[in-house]
């Protein structure tokens, strides 16, 4: 019973990560304010925050979703 729930949660996280990646690449200002985007002349700290935002909003959901799917598949099979 746990396996399908993990697979479903992983799929939702993967879709969320993909949507956030597409929004990040298209530069939609409505999704992220100007503080998120890397701009010329910013300090090193501000650029590090951009990297942190990217990791939290894009990489983490994709990675956690993939792990949940694999773990769910081990319970199903």
Can you summarize this structure?
With about 80 residues, the chain is an all-alpha fold.
Note down, in words, how this protein is organized:
α1 runs antiparallel to α2. The protein has helices at 2-26, 44-76. The chain starts with a helix and ends with a helix. With 77 residues, it is mainly α.
Number of strands: 0
Structural class: mainly alpha
Outline? elongated
Low-confidence region ranges: none
Topology pattern, helix = H, strand = E = HH
Distance separating the two termini: 12 Å
Supply Rg.
Answer: 16 Å
Helix content: over 70%
The description of the largest β-sheet is: none
Number of helices: 2
Q: Give the DSSP E fraction (strand runs of 2 or more residues).
A: under 5%
Task: Let me know the average pLDDT.
Answer: 84
Notable traits:
0% strand; 2 helices; 77 residues; mainly alpha
Sequence-ordered SSE layout with sheet pairings:
Elements: H1 2-26, H2 44-76
